[in-house]
C-alpha cells in the first residue's frame, strides 16, 4: 500500500503541470487546505501544551507509534508530515480536477476542525 501511494505521488509529480514551483503550488492550494494547515498547527501546539502539563494523553493514531505521552518533537514531526502529505496530495489532484482537490481540502478541514473541537470540549 505504501509503495502504491509513493508511486502515485511520483507519477503525479511527473506530469507537465508539475513544472510549477513549490511556491506556486502552495499559493494555488485551496483556501480550505490552507485553513486545515493552520488548524492542524494549532492542534499540535495545543496537544504539546496539554501533554506537557500532564492533563491529557494521546489516544489517536500517534499513540500507536509513540505511546500515550509522545514528546513535542514526535507530535510536531508527525503533524508536519501529515500536513505535507495532505498538501502534496491536494496539489496533485488539483492539477487534474480542482473541484475534487477542494473537496479533499474540505474533508481535511472538517476532520482537523472536529479534532480540535473535541480537544476544546475536553479542556474547558
Q: What is the compact description of this entry?
A:
It contains six helices and no strands.
Q: What structural keywords apply?
A:
single chain; 124 residues; mainly alpha; 80% helix
What does this entry look like structurally?
The protein has 124 residues and is an all-alpha fold. It has one domain (21-123). It has helices at 2-13, 22-28, 31-53, 61-66, 72-96, 98-123. Helix 3 (31-53) runs parallel beside helix 6 (98-123). The longest helix has 26 residues, at 98-123. 19% of the residues are buried.
Topology readout:
Elements: H1 2-13, H2 22-28, H3 31-53, H4 61-66, H5 72-96, H6 98-123
Helix pairs in contact: 3-5, 3-6, 5-6
Low-confidence stretches: none
Biggest sheet descriptor: none
Anisotropy-based shape: elongated
**SSE order:** HHHHHH
Computed structural class:
mainly alpha
| Number of helical stretches of at least 4 residues | 6
Total beta strand runs? 0
Gyration radius (Cα, Å) is: 16 Å
Strand content: under 5%
Instruction: State the domain count.
Output: 1
Query: Gap between N and C termini, in Å?
Result: 40 Å
Amino acid at each position: 500500500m505504501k509503495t502504491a501511494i509513493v508511486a502515485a505521488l511520483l507519477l503525479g509529480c511527473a506530469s507537465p503541470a508539475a513544472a510549477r514551483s513549490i511556491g506556486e503550488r502552495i499559493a494555488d492550494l485551496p483556501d480550505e487546505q490552507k485553513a486545515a494547515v493552520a488548524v492542524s498547527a494549532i492542534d499540535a501546539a495545543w496537544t504539546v501544551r496539554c501533554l506537557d502539563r500532564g492533563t491529557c494523553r494521546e489516544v489517536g493514531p500517534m499513540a500507536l507509534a509513540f505511546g500515550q505521552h509522545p514528546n513535542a518533537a514526535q507530535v510536531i514531526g508527525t503533524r508536519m508530515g501529515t500536513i505535507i502529505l495532505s498538501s502534496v496530495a491536494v496539489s496533485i489532484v488539483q492539477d487534474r480536477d480542482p473541484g475534487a482537490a477542494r473537496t479533499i481540502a474540505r474533508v481535511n478541514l472538517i476532520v482537523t476542525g472536529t479534532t480540535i473541537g473535541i480537544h476544546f470540549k475536553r479542556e474547558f
